[in-house]
Give the backbone structure.
Amino acid sequence: MQHFLAQMVDVFRLELFLQLCLATLFGGAIGLERELGGKPAGLRTNILICIGSVLYTKLSFTMAAGTADPTRIAAQIVTGVGFIGAGTILHARGAVVGLTSAATIWVVAAIGVALGATFYSEASSAWWRGNQRRACCRCMPTPAPPSWTSWRRLSAGRDSRSSGRRAVARTWTS
């Protein structure tokens, strides 16, 4: 019976199916949080990066099969994802934007590599720690949303950033 179950796992590639499902779950959870926050690199991007990392890692272990170093492809995943992350970083008007998106892409790829290499507990731990960000940072002050800060400036009758001139009503888009 145990031999039959091992054959069924091999025939249907259930381990790969499990890895892809976990990649969809973990990448999707991180992407959904970003999508709901209106941030770039949302749901589809994170799912695709995580699934791609799983597939390339699984392929490298399968293709190497004792003849080559399977970690070489994982190293190329890190390099390729670094270029994708670099593309999300923008420098405009003295401000750097997109660092969190780049870091998110990098971590999602690392979770995918861990899943592809069958390090399930490490991948789930990284995902869980990333989602505990809000629970562990309650002691840090959270900035008010832009609509609230602009309302305070408008209700005070002047814009604190413009040396006493009247504030102009702004529309904030998300």
Observations:
- The two ends are 57 Å apart (CA to CA).
- The helical segments are 2-12, 14-36, 43-64, 71-88, 99-116, 120-131, 133-136, 146-156.
- The chain has a mean pLDDT of 79.
